[in-house]
Design goal:
The structure holds two protein chains of two kinds. By secondary structure, chain A is mostly beta strands. Chain A is about 0% helix and about 55% strand. Chain A has no helices and eleven strands. Chain A is globular. Chain B is an all-beta fold. Helices cover about 0% and strands about 55% of the residues of chain B. Chain B contains no helices and eleven strands. Chain B is globular and about 35 Å long. The relative contact order of chain B is 0.33. Classes of the chains: A mainly beta, B mainly beta. The interface between A and B is medium-sized, with 23 and 25 residues.
Chain lengths: ~110, ~110
């Protein structure tokens, strides 16, 4: 079945450092991937997405890398700030699922000042 | 543009009762999806509605149901509540399905 999971449940970094959050997925038919950020008491917020025909996409301070060979996805946050502290989820969609999002468990990122 | 709104934000019920949660999508969005979030299971897909039709369904028992109205607003209902139904219920809207915008959620506690 579909499974999108995360390698590490928690990540602690120093302010100003770069953060890397990893995610593995099992469904090779997944063709669209999204990273979400969820702050305490709020719903998930879209960060960045990437389609399966790409291997890298950059946003503001964030980069998503996709390695389809090993079914691995990562989110890189440059110059991490205290406001980046949150739970980060990866999610995938495969074309036959009619836009059903399958989420990973989440990684708690803590940024130490 | 106003975001996704969900009501109520917090709810306390007892076992055996039923509950109805409401979601108002972003104006112009026709797809509404519902998710259950718990510490143990994470975010799990419940169902998705598009133009008043259920287009997709997750692996939840029949006690969980939903509907969508002509104005795209959606409701989900849980009957015969169980302790394990305590969770944050999230609604997300989308213009077509891929990029989903989440509401703040309804925190349901079943006693």
């Amino acid at each position: 079945g579909e499974n999108v999971g995360l390698h590490l449940p928690t990540l602690s970094v120093q302010e100003g450092d770069n953060s890397i959050i990893n995610c593995a997925y099992s469904n090779s038919a997944s063709d669209y991937f999204i990273w979400y950020k969820q702050e305490s008491g709020k719903g998930p917020q879209f960060i960045i997405d990437i389609r399966s025909n790409m291997d890298k996409r950059q946003g503001q301070r964030v980069t998503v890398l996709l390695n389809k060979t090993v079914k691995h996805l990562s989110l890189q946050i440059a110059a991490t700030q205290p406001g980046d502290s949150a739970v980060y989820f990866c999610a995938s969609i495969h074309g036959g699922s009619n836009y059903k999002l399958t989420f990973g468990k989440g990684t708690l990122l803590t940024v130490n000042p | 543009k106003a975001g996704v709104t969900q009501t109520p934000r917090y709810l306390i019920k007892t076992r055996g009762q039923q509950v109805t949660l409401s979601c108002s999508p972003i104006s112009g969005h026709r797809s509404v999806s519902w998710y259950q979030q718990t510490p143990g299971q994470g975010l799990q897909f419940l169902f998705e509605y598009f133009s008043e039709t259920q287009r997709n369904k997750g692996n939840f028992p029949g006690r969980f149901s939903g509907r969508q109205f002509s104005n795209s607003r959606s409701e989900m209902n849980v009957s015969t509540l169980e302790l394990g139904d305590s969770a944050l219920y999230l609604c997300a809207s989308s213009p077509i399905g891929n990029e989903q915008f989440f509401g703040p959620g309804t925190r349901l506690t079943v006693l």
